């Protein structure tokens, strides 16, 4: 059973961001769209794009350099607005096995989009 109080953070984030201009998610890269979706589907509201998942997607060609470049373009375009809601810990060609995550998406990320 889900206790309503567990999700008060959603209301707090929505209230905090209510006057922030929303980004049309449909105009964003497929990778950013996936990150937002994963956050919304996660019980805790966060998504960790782990190194293992990165390698698996690249190997299966479900993640390409062009997709990553589109994501980087989004970050350059919207990064100032969503600063703090998403962190990129690696570059497509320079993923370090010593890190756990390539990208960390925080609870507030989905609420910057419409």
Unreliable stretches, pLDDT < 50, 5 or more residues? none
Tell me the β content. 5-15%
Q: Specify the helix fraction band.
A: 40-55%
The tally of helices reads: 4
Rg for CA atoms: 15 Å
Strand order of the largest sheet: 1-3-2
Terminal residue distance = 29 Å
Run of helices and strands: HHEHHEE
User: Averaged pLDDT, please?
Assistant: 91
Shape: globular
Give the strand tally.
3
Derived structural class: alpha+beta
The major β-sheet equals: 3 strands, antiparallel
Give a written overview of the molecule.
- The chain has 114 residues and is an alpha+beta fold.
- It is 42% helix and 11% strand.
- It has helices at residues 8-16, 30-41, 51-59, 65-82, and strands at residues 47-50, 86-88, 101-105.
- The chain has a 3-stranded antiparallel beta sheet with strand order 1-3-2.
- The model has no long low-confidence stretch (mean pLDDT 91).
Secondary structure elements and pairings:
Layout: H1 8-16, H2 30-41, E1 47-50, H3 51-59, H4 65-82, E2 86-88, E3 101-105
Antiparallel strand pairs: 1-3, 2-3
Quickly describe the structure.
This protein is of the alpha+beta class.
Fill in the keyword field for this structure.
114 residues; three-stranded antiparallel β-sheet; 42% helix; alpha+beta
């Amino acid at each position: 059973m889900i206790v309503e109080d567990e999700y008060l953070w959603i209301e707090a984030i929505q209230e905090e961001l209510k006057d922030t201009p929303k980004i049309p998610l449909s105009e964003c890269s497929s990778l950013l769209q996936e990150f937002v979706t994963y956050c919304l589907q996660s019980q805790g509201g966060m998504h960790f794009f782990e190194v293992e998942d990165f390698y698996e997607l690249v190997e299966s060609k479900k993640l390409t350099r062009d997709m990553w470049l589109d994501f980087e373009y989004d970050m350059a375009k919207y990064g100032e607005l969503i600063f703090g809601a998403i962190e990129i810990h690696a570059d497509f060609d320079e993923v370090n096995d010593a890190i756990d995550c390539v990208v960390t998406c925080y609870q507030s990320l989905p609420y910057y989009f419409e």
